[in-house]
Amino acid sequence: MRDDKSRKLYEKACQVLVGGVNSPVRAFKSVGGIPRFIVSGKGAYVRDADGNELIDYIASWGALLFGHRPSFVQEALARCAEVGTSFGLPTELEVQIAERVRNLAPHAERVRFVNSGSEATAAAVRLARGATGRSRIVKCAGCYHGAVDALLVRAGSGVATFGIPDSFGIPEPVAAQTLVVPYNDEEALESVFTELGDTIACFILEPIAGNMGLVPPLPGYLQKARDLTRRYGSLLVFDEVMTGFRVSPGGAAQLYGVTPDLVCFGKIIGGGAPVGALAGKAEIMENLAPVGNVYHAGTLSGNPLSMMLGLATLEQIACRGEKLYRELESQSAALASGIGEIASRKGVPVQVQRVGSMLTVFFTEHPVRNYEEAKKSDTTLFSRFFQRLLECGVHLPPSQFECWFLTASHDRKIVETTLDACEKAFGTL
How far apart are CA 360 and CA 336, in angstroms? Predict the structure, then answer.
């Protein structure tokens, strides 16, 4: 597979962009080789600068539930071009998409649109502190909630990829307000609340961990989190930037039947445009300005471009309903079980972990339940697997600690092509 143009573009990019990229994991540092520079996408495929057509399991890191350039998104883009992309003033679109969000996720009684998942989680932490009058927050090791100072403590995703548990530039007093517990550990969670519960503003977590690779919650874990936060007067915040509207119409909250106080959305509700949202119970959300005293503002919040694309996407979800999720489940299950069967037959120890259309292939012999167990994966073996699949025309997320995302465009033929590539890759590891 040719990579001449991508290689030249990467060399040029390194002269003007930090590390040649605008988000660290894109640099391929953990898998080696040269990142592919993408020129277009359609359905489940992307095409790189060298003309290689690649099956895409990144899907803009989960944002593209329906794949690249679905017709309804293109139509929304055309409508936006006719009216304008930003006013900095209210529009009916914001009301329409907020109503659609609430219809799909009834626990989102009030919504505040922002411009990224990171902005949503930052606002959630500030709101929790303002609403409770407390300063401490609790998070899980390996859960990444965006590049937010208070949350970049033992984070996952790109930070885990580079083996950096924290980031320079975060003052110790800020980090000291963040308490870290292992994911899926009820005993550790109860211990920290027993000791410090009356100082804790919120417990923020990914209800389905996706930034240490895909790690589902153990039975009862989310309910334990709900019970403890309610008992101690803290808020439960679900970071559903990845899982919102992907694992079910109402996200992980609906899937597991646990209702958070606040929820952070992103990715899918922008239909491919930059977006985020903070939502939750009305009495908590109305602590935000202009009703309350917790300040948050943004020039491009609720801009017509993101709102039009997001509304078109959520309308498709509502229209297709459970049929959409049954199809996603069918293709994802076939891919996951096929990979597991091939790896077993080839004698390669892997754990294929999946919830809905999200999955991760961990190169380890044992199930992964938290960040420490995820870090025991053989990242060298994953890197070789990644490169073998790329040579076969399948583009995975370039890190052992990321999720694969399927879209409505990944049909059975694409799944079978991927499994054929896995057969070749596992045979050479």
Answer: 9
